[in-house]
Amino acid sequence: MATVDELSVVVVGLGPMGRGIARVFAQSGARVTVVDADETRTRDNAEVLRREADRDDRPVPVTATADLAAALDGADLLVEAVVEDLAVKRDLLARVAATGSTGLVVATNTSSLSVAELGRAFGDPTRLVGLHFFNPATRMRLVEVVAGPQTAPQVVDRAQRWVTGLGKTAVRCADTPNFVVNRICRPLYYEAQLLVTQGVPAPVVDAVAQAALGHRMGPLELLDFTGLHTHLASSETALREFGDPRYRPIPLTRALVRAGLTGRGVGRGYYDYAAEPPAAARHRVVRPAPAGSGPVVLTGPAADRLHGVAGLIGDTADTPADAVLLYAAAGDPGRCAAEITDLLAAGRTVVLDSSDAGWLDVAPPGVGWLRLHPTAERVFAEVVHDDVAAICETTAVTAVLAATGASSVRLPALPGLVADRLMYTMANEAVTVVEEGTATAAAVDTALRLGMNHPVGPTEYVDRVGADRVLDGLVALARFTGDPRYRPCPLLRRQAAGTARRRS
Ligand SMILES: NC(=O)c1ccc[n+]([C@@H]2O[C@H](COP(=O)([O-])OP(=O)(O)OC[C@H]3O[C@@H](n4cnc5c(N)ncnc54)[C@H](O)[C@@H]3O)[C@@H](O)[C@H]2O)c1
What we know:
This protein has 504 residues and is an alpha/beta fold. The protein folds into 3 domains: 4-175, Rossmann fold; 182-278, Orthogonal Bundle (N-(1-d-carboxylethyl)-l-norvaline Dehydrogenase, domain 2); 296-405, no CATH class. The protein is 45% helix and 14% strand. The protein contains 21 helices and 15 strands. It has an 8-stranded mixed beta sheet, with helices on both faces. The protein has a 7-stranded mixed beta sheet with strand order 10-9-11-12-13-14-15. Helix 1 (16-27) links the parallel strand 1 and strand 2 (31-35). The radius of gyration is 26 Å and the shape is elongated. Bound molecules: nicotinamide-adenine-dinucleotide (NAD). The site of nicotinamide-adenine-dinucleotide (NAD) has 23 residues, from helix 1, helix 2 and helix 4.
């Protein structure tokens, strides 16, 4: 089988993706010919490609021609990166088929169209494979290798080896809408938008995603960057393709798009870029740790989660009687609430650490509620402050923030708060992707680590926190909202049952 440096590659469509893909193949030694819709666009876009390569100090030789048949003469691989329009791609593939190149492998970089349908348009679905590069293709290491139902296994293998030869990581997946990364991030984006509609400011959502989950960019800033119209269109596609109400678009985003407020490109979307850039908005909502505090005693059934956090001590005989007690709750809020009531009756000052929805109804009066997120470098806290639900940031909460050195944001009493809600819903989608056979758990984790720079893959997260806890979180969200978005998938339920049985 030819290695990348022995390949003759034709890249069709010289938007940002096609230009990046052409450069990546050329940098690896392939002979690359680039083609756009007509002579002028081919010449102009090839010039842009060369300038971009020079600017990055990686000049590459590429041949440019608008004559598709001539470009295909002797080619081993055609990568199509033309505009995301089924009719345009169909027409192109029919013209490629008409040149009669029987040994040619055809790769599509489509983000949302069916590889099977494009395979049929080409006429030989065994030779058509999805190679979903990420933007910018020159820098992103991940490529999703998408096997259509009729793609020949040896074509998928060859495509995977070429991707590896480009110095990239290939993740194999089946031909399902949105493939892996964009599919698993759907709930991340939906929940971020819903949180805004439920009273959490956009910079608070993004600050939590960054500080508690280690995401490079918050989901709302990312949506603004992509363009809300693009996201809305892909949400509508997902809803139509899956026929599942959990993929329905969020009305606020539809309203913003109708008003022309489609994100950073026009200066306004979830953020108003003229008023305040996202980084400044986040800076405004994240409060530094307050100064000075006495010791805080850690207790409760989920205390393990916070062991080792500086500033938290165990309850011993010589603990000062006035020390604040941080009660890390797990599972059953009703039972934990009864324990907290006993502690209050014994004169202790209690703060609750939890994201469970059940606390909205049972948190005892005067008890503060937060969720600490310790990372290797620092501690970050989501602090519930909700006048409507009469749950306020108490002086004891301030003492916990001071003792642990936690920076924090304030938010209303919503189930899962922000961080856990984003993770539970993404994890559920990831387990669904594994259950339906779209990709393996290992592939899913690699895809999210490389495609989104997430520090933990979603199935690794389930293993780490326990499938039963993720299930409890989703069940609570479903009960609280009545929304089918939170329906746990059957495999997660089975995993949770297994986790609970093995634990007992
Ligand atoms: N932009 C992204 O972030 C991204 C990421 C991954 C995948 N993709 C996919 O990659 C593909 C290209 O994306 P893009 O953002 O570069 O698109 P784009 O719309 O910016 O550019 C498309 C290019 O195709 C050319 N073109 C249109 N019709 C053509 C034809 N018949 N023959 C030859 N060239 C033609 C256009 O002139 C243009 O240069 C799409 O399928 C898209 O879904 C995009």
